[in-house]
Design goal:
The chain is mainly alpha-helical. Helices cover about 70% and strands about 0% of the residues. α6 packs antiparallel against α9. It comes from Phaseolus coccineus (Scarlet runner bean).
Length: about 290
């Protein structure tokens, strides 16, 4: 190591010692890295962490797009086109944003499914479940508000339908609709509201509830799974998917499995259910040995 490198290392060590003396960084790092992980934990216990990763990707890519997006009814669509066609790597950033959004919703659903079937919502983890439900609602709200931001025909009519739903509520329905839209009709006020919700309010609330959620998990530890998880998965998922081929054939005297798409969904769902059911009840070492993951 030359003299310059030695001086840099010495300087960084002094900086580290300064922070260590005041914040005890090493103790915090040891506590995080030495946390006991129960032997029953397998790959399905990573779904919450994957959801968090997708959220962080959303924050990064969404922040990048705010440099070019214009939240006005006259310029929103054109600004999205500019991002996709003119901005450097804009098409990639927006595509990653869209795909990670879909992945976040999927991972969140699977995470809820796993927690419910393993009994992770039971005492003393009720509040952890409540914060998780709030996060699920916030995730769905991200989808609704983000869907409208391009302000194309799909986004416009989606907003009009979604904001019109509360009108069916007695007494306060009309007031809720006007609150969501910002006026009696869908327009600039609506887009401004949805943009503010999508880029500021929802991310802030999500960060707060994620901090609460992970703090509770850290404090209470990981719940012991219900060994009936495998049976429930292998029975409930194929049973639910079995209805898919019949949906378009209600009251029709024809073979429901003639629909290739529906039949494919059912077969894939059955295989995945068997895979999840067997793997979810085994420790990760046995799952890897059997080649399940």
């Amino acid at each position: 190591m030359n003299l310059r490198g030695f001086l840099w290392v010495t300087y960084l060590n002094k900086v580290y010692d300064w922070f260590e003396e005041r914040l005890e960084i090493q103790a915090i790092a040891d506590d995080i890295t030495s946390k006991y992980v129960p032997p029953h934990v397998n790959i399905f216990y990573c779904l919450g962490g994957i959801t968090l990763t997708c959220f962080l990707v959303q924050v990064a890519t969404g922040f990048a797009m705010t440099f070019y997006y214009r939240p006005t009814v006259t310029e929103a669509f054109a600004s999205v086109q500019y991002i996709m066609t003119e901005a450097n790597f804009g098409w990639l950033i927006r595509s990653v944003h869209r795909w990670s959004a879909s992945m976040m919703v999927l991972m969140m659903i699977l995470h809820v499914f796993r927690v419910y079937l393993t009994g992770g919502f039971k005492k003393p983890r009720e509040l952890t479940w409540v914060t998780g439900v709030v996060l699920a609602v916030l995730t769905a709200s991200f989808g609704v508000t983000g869907y409208s931001l391009p302000w194309d025909q799909i986004g416009y009519w989606a907003v009009k339908i979604v904001t019109g739903v509360p009108e069916a509520i007695p007494v306060i329905g009309s007031s809720l609709v006007e609150l969501l839209r910002g006026s009696s009709s869908v327009g600039q006020s609506t887009l401004t509201r949805f943009y503010s919700l999508h880029t500021f309010v929802l991310p802030l609330l999500t960060a707060v509830f994620m901090l609460m959620h992970f703090s509770m998990i850290r404090k209470q530890g990981i719940s012991v799974p219900n060994k009936l998880l495998g049976v429930l998965l292998m029975v409930s998922v194929p049973t639910g998917l079995l209805t898919v081929p019949f949906l378009e054939n209600v009251n029709k005297f024809q073979n429901p499995f003639r629909r290739p798409v529906a039949t494919t969904i059912f077969l894939i769902g059955t295989v995945v259910a068997l895979w999840l059911g067997i793997g979810a009840t085994l420790p990760i070492e046995k799952s890897l040995t059997l080649g399940l993951f």
